[in-house]
Design goal:
single chain, 21% helix
């Protein structure tokens, strides 16, 4: 019994990431179609963005894990606290047992709860490197959304580079199973 207690107490929190927001019950809508969701999102929400990167398309971005209509998730925002490389972000996400949803998860979270996105930060939803779009310069690109102000009509959609790393201007957006305690 004591050994179990000691193990629980020795669990380390990664100081490079700070949990700042949680969406407790995000449900994938019944009409969600993962094959055309990026095109559908652009058609329905393009006008709500100050800038919108044109290379965020269904053709460019694959996904490691397809979202299924009716699925429920807990979505967490972790503030990046210091400069860090993408491989360390992925290692942290794997340690948290997140479901890598990439840009599709980013768009779904924005569509269902854009008012929760942290103000003045870029929110990024990772996927495995192999699922990312490789631009003409050979960089693996990751979509991210910037919330400009408390006004929920002011957002930007950009593309970061996996190879560049991340700093305290970014938050990791993480999908977790609803019953998952991590």
């Amino acid at each position: 019994m004591e050994e179990t207690m000691d193990k629980k107490m020795s669990v380390k929190v990664d100081p490079r990431f700070n949990l700042i927001k949680v969406i407790d019950n995000l449900v994938v809508p019944v009409e969600y179609n993962p094959d055309i969701c990026l095109a559908t999102f652009k058609k329905e929400h393009y006008s709500e963005f100050n800038s919108y990167h044109p290379d965020v398309t269904d053709e460019h971005f694959r996904t490691t894990r397809r979202l299924v209509p009716g699925e429920k998730f807990k979505v967490k925002f972790f503030q990046v606290m210091e400069g860090i490389i993408s491989e360390n972000c992925l290692a942290f996400l794997h340690s948290e047992n997140v479901i890598l949803t990439g840009v599709r998860g980013l768009f779904l979270a924005w569509q269902e709860a854009k008012d929760v996105f942290p103000v003045g930060k870029w929110s990024v939803s990772f996927d495995e490197r192999s699922a990312l779009w490789v631009d003409p310069n050979g960089s693996h690109r990751i979509a991210n959304i910037f919330r400009c102000s408390d006004d929920i009509s002011k957002f930007n959609l950009g593309l970061g580079r996996f190879e560049d790393g991340w700093n305290d201007s970014f938050c990791l957006l993480c999908f977790c199973e609803c019953g998952n305690s991590s």
